[in-house]
Structures are given as structure tokens and as C-alpha cells.
Design brief:
Blueprint lengths: L1 E5 L4 H12 L3 E6 L18 E5 L8 H7 L2 E4 L6 H6 L1 H22 L4 E7 L28 H20 L3 E6 L2 E2 L10 H10 L4 E4 L5 E2 L2 E2 H13 L7 E4 L5 E2 H11 L6 E4 L1 H5 L14 H7 L7 H19 L1
Parallel strand pairs: 1-2, 1-4, 2-3, 4-5, 5-6, 6-11, 7-10, 8-13
Antiparallel strand pairs: 9-12
Bound molecules: uridine-5'-diphosphate.
The site of uridine-5'-diphosphate has 14 residues, from helix 6 and strand 8.
């Protein structure tokens, strides 16, 4: 099978590439290396089945031919991370919406009807105060132009672009609402909590818990997320559907900090920081973000294989290697 992965040098995309190369597929990654990095795919560059194009999806001149060569496309290219969204909302809006529009238009023009998965995000559930979310929950976005919601707006636009093309032209497009995903190669630079806490814990620095730490998240290991994305792409009944992907085990951010501290045998103290101090005026945090996965299971039979503690142990071991190789 010939696979095209946009954003394939990023955290999830590079694991997606690993997965398909291991299965004997041919993989073409396109990435502008803005938040993705070459080191995530360095181990694949010598594989005869792997092709990499450093290019921006908005202007890439090979997009049409790459799409026409693909049996399956994972569209993961996007500007992500709360800090980046607050810093550069213009880039978020243009990359995330115009890139998706250009890609789906090219799929339609190509006429080959490949399997397409478009990555959306649990951010679209917005400020909905539900304890857990299924795909029919209302999407509650704040009024008043708070930039924090720019990312959610772009992902919602992507979902509706995909719906529109899938329905009007009978294209084979599934939409994945990805909840928090964690694992090796995830960077804390753009604010993601698990790599940030791991980085702090192994260096015995204060662990920065925002708010009172009682907000909860559910973390899916990236290898489980990749399996779920493959199952979704392979499932004809998922075409034209929006489907949650994540993990149903929930943990408070304070408990997460304590777990990482314990697993790293760290001397770090927990340091509670107000949202205002952490993110500035613009910020609304979401109290809970747990997916209901009934639809994913019904469509694909998906079951998670990883537990959070094992993912954290692996991330700690890799972080220790980084420290040791630098010294
Ligand atoms: N968070 C934290 N300390 C950090 C980074 C994040 O307490 O150094 C909190 C953040 O406020 C949120 C949770 O961890 O409540 C998850 O944050 P992340 O940005 O990883 O994901 P998202 O908020 O998009 O679910």
C-alpha cells in the first residue's frame, strides 16, 4: 500500500510512518519542519520504501501527483500546541484551514478515491463542561475573540470541509477527533504537559502544575493512537463520520505530576502556577477532557494496549539518555 502522511515528521506522523514501514508499505512524508523535525524520521531516511519531501502544504508543487500516487492519506499537518496558538494565531488559521482545503480539493481532482483520514481535535468540544464526550456532544466555543479558541475553530472548519467534500463528491474521508496523545518524540516546547513534567522531573526542577491541578485529562499512547487511525482508515463505514480517538482512563494533572515524580525518583517539588501567570489574560482551561470511544469500538473493534505508567517510564528513560549523551 502507498501511504501519504502530511505532517509526517511530527510527533504522531512519525509514529504513523514507523507503523506503515514496519508493515511493508511505501510511505511518503511531507512536512515543512516547522514543528516537526528531521530527527523524528532520521531512522527511516535510508529505507527504500520511505520518501521525504520538505515542503509546505500550502504551496507544495508535487501535492497533486503525491495524492494521485496514494492509496491512503493521513492529513496530520497542522500548527498545534496551546503556546504556539497563543503566540501565532495567524499562522494557525492559515496553515490549518488553507492546507486542508488544498489537500481535499486535490483528492477530489485526482479522482482516485483514496482512503483519507483528517485529524481533528478534542479542542472542538471547547468549553462544554460534560464529564466525557461522545461525537454528538455540543461544541461550545467562547465568544469574545479569545485567541485560545483559534485552533478549535480551524479544526472545526477542517471537519466541515471534509464533510462537505465527502458528501458532495462521495469521497472516502474519515475525521478523527484526537484527544491528548503522549509518547516518545513529543516535545514540551509548545506546552504539552507530559513531556514538560518529564523534562522537569528528571532534572529535579520544580514541576509546574497550572491552576489547582484538579483539571483532568485522558492520555493515549501514540502507538495506540496510530493503531486506531489505521483501523479508522481501513473501515469503509467510517467514511464521512467523525470519530473520537483517545483513551478513557482519566487522571488529574496534580496526580500526573506526582506519578511522573515518583516514576522518575525525582526530588522535584510541585509548583502551582495560576493560569493567568502561565498563559496570560487570553486563557480558558478546560476542566475535563475524556473521550467516549463507543463509536470507535463499534466501527473498528479498537482496544488500547498501553497504560500511562509504561508510556511515562519510556519517556523518562529517553529523557535520561538525552541528559547522559549531552554530558
Ligand atoms: N499543564 C500544566 N503544566 C504545564 C503544562 C500544562 O499544569 O507545564 C496543564 C494545562 O493547563 C492543562 C493540562 O496540563 O490543564 C494539559 O495541557 P496540554 O497543553 O498538554 O493539553 P490540553 O490542554 O490541550 O489538553
Amino acid at each position: 500500500m502507498h501511504i501519504l502522511i502530511t505532517g509526517g515528521a511530527g510527533f504522531i506522523g512519525s509514529h504513523m510512518a514507523d507503523y506503515h514501514i514496519a508493515r511493508g508499505d511505501t510511505v511518503h512524508v511531507v512536512d515543512n519542519l516547522s514543528t516537526g523535525c528531521r530527527s523524528n524520521i532520521a531512522h527511516l531516511l535510508n529505507s527504500p520504501n520511505f520518501h521525504f519531501s520538505k515542503a509546505d502544504l500550502l504551496v507544495w508543487d508535487k501535492l497533486q501527483s503525491a495524492i494521485e500516487a496514494a492509496d491512503r492519506i493521513y492529513h496530520l499537518a497542522a500548527v498545534v500546541g496551546v503556546k504556539l496558538v497563543l503566540q501565532d494565531p495567524v499562522r494557525v488559521m492559515s496553515t490549518n484551514m488553507a492546507g486542508t482545503e488544498r489537500l481535499i480539493r486535490a483528492v477530489h481532482k485526482g479522482g482516485g478515491n483514496p482512503q483519507v483520514v483528517v485529524a481533528s481535535s478534542s479542542e472542538v468540544y471547547g468549553f462544554n463542561e460534560a464529564e466525557a464526550f461522545d461525537e454528538n456532544c455540543d461544541l461550545v466555543l467562547r465568544s469574545g475573540g479569545r485567541l485560545r479558541w483559534s485552533y478549535a475553530v480551524t479544526k472545526l472548519a477542517d471537519e466541515y470541509l471534509a464533510f462537505a467534500y465527502a458528501r458532495k463528491y462521495d469521497l472516502n474521508i474519515a475525521i478523527a477527533r484526537l484527544f491528548n496523545t503522549v509518547g516518545p518524540r513529543q516535545s514540551g516546547v509548545y506546552g504539552m504537559v507530559v513531556p514538560t513534567f518529564v523534562h522537569q522531573a528528571v532534572r529535579h526542577q520544580p514541576i509546574t502544575v497550572y491552576g489547582d491541578g484538579q483539571q483532568t485529562r485522558s492520555f493515549s499512547d501514540v502507538r495506540d493512537t496510530v493503531t486506531a487511525l489505521d483501523l479508522l482508515a481501513s473501515c469503509p463505514a467510517a467514511s464521512g463520520e467523525v470519530v473520537n480517538i483517545g483513551n478513557e482512563q482519566e487522571i488529574t494533572i496534580e496526580a500526573l505530576a506526582r506519578l511522573i515524580k515518583e516514576r522518575a525518583a525525582s526530588r522535584s517539588e510541585l509548583h502551582f502556577i495560576s493560569y493567568h501567570e502561565a498563559y496570560g489574560e487570553e486563557f480558558d482551561d478546560v476542566s475535563h477532557r475524556r473521550p467516549i470511544l463507543d463509536k470507535l469500538r463499534a466501527l473498528t473493534g479498537y482496544r488500547a494496549q498501553w497504560v500511562l505508567r509504561d508510556t511515562i517510564d519510556e519517556m523518562i528513560a529517553l529523557e535520561i539518555q538525552i541528559i547522559e549523551s549531552a554530558s
